[in-house]
Amino acid sequence: MSATAGWPKIGLEDDPSDLLRKASRGAKLDPNALGRRTGIEPAAISAWLKGDGVPTEDQARSLAGVLSIDPGKFADAAARRWYPGAELPPYVRHHPHDPHPSNGYLFFLEDGKTAALVDPAGYPKTLLNAVNEGPYALRYILITHKHADHCDATADVARAFPKAEIVMHRADVKAIGDLGKRAIPVADGDELPFGDEAAIRMLHTPGHTDGSSCFLFRSTVFSGDTLFAGSVGGIFADVSTYEDLLASVSLKLFSLDDDTVVMPGHGPPTTIGQEKAHNPFF
To answer: What are 22-57's pLDDT values in tens digits?
Structure first.
């Protein structure tokens, strides 16, 4: 295992029980159905779903085959044989979203003066300090999706930086109330100007929520709860499905260069290449 440079080594967002639970829900198979198809005792599968123990190598591979996830990658995850290694790009700063267990980010232009904030959540003071420590002129407030642990401080940040433009997909924009009227109505593939030669591209990646979005800047993608190191987000959408989420990752995120750094909404950073090689869902 290699720790991520410039980042304290933290646990992956999802442990083997989370992976098994998400894949089971996606496949619509309960422990009894899985037991019938694999010959594994349903009681053992139920225990693993609760985090009580993990399947053996052979059991993990058997379950993966039924759940349509990668057997080798899931066996590696169950045995905890992999941890991502990715360097924090020099133009990105990370900050915690206390009291939420989610990640916040600032990224900025080479002039070191103009910045964009990804997911305004948690204690407003932390966010305001992160911007003011630059000090940066905040150009954008980018919101990946509607859940509170990614946007519940939007009003405070918008009040402190009234010139900053809010960017959020229209399918999730109700989560920020009246501020939604100010949000730029971006669509998949739209680019936001950022400096003289730079741009931020929005990728609509429905699945976790209907409006879930990722933001690509240079060789870094901020993936919200669409893609984690070694996993994907759960399905909490009104319309989008598990299949939509997998398609969002495989068709949009996995089309990016392998060395693209992934800054997820939870857990450590990774790269597109590492996710292709190690994420059990693909």
So the answer is: 999 999 999 999 999 999 999 999 999 999 999 999
Query: Using CA atoms, how far apart are residues 147 and 127, in angstroms rounded to an integer?
Result: 17
pLDDT tens profile 82-135: 999 898 999 999 999 999 999 999 999 988 889 999 999 999 999 999 999 989
Q: How far is CA 46 from the centre of its chain?
A: 27
User: CA nearest 87: which of 4, 151, 172?
Assistant: 4
Beta strand extents in 4-136 (DSSP E only)? 92-96, 103-108, 114-118
pTM across the whole model: 0.95
Instruction: For residue 34, give the CATH number of its domain.
Output: 1.10.260.40
235 touches 247 (CB < 8 A): no
Q: Which residues contact 135 (CB under 8 A, 6 or more apart)?
A: none
Q: Per-residue pLDDT tens for 106-115?
A: 999 988 889 9
Distance (Å) of CA 14 to CA 9, 23, 203, 243, 264: 15, 12, 23, 19, 12
Residue 221 to residues 40, 213, 226, 257, Cα–Cα distance (Å):
39, 10, 11, 11
Q: Which residues of 228-245 are buried (b: 16+ CB within 10 A; e: fewer)?
A: bbbbbbbbebeebebebb
Cα(177)–Cα(184) distance, integer angstroms: 14
Q: Does residue 83 lie in a domain region?
A: no
Do 69 and 162 lie in a common domain? no
**Distant-in-sequence, close-in-space partners of 139: CB < 8 Å, separation ≥ 6:** 114, 115, 116, 164, 165, 194
How confident is the model at residue 8, as a pLDDT? Answer: 67
* CA separation for the pair 230, 171 (Å, rounded): 27
For residue 57, what are its two tokens?
A: 């190598």
- Indicate if 70 and 99 belong to the same structural domain: no
Q: Are 160 and 216 contained in the same domain?
A: yes
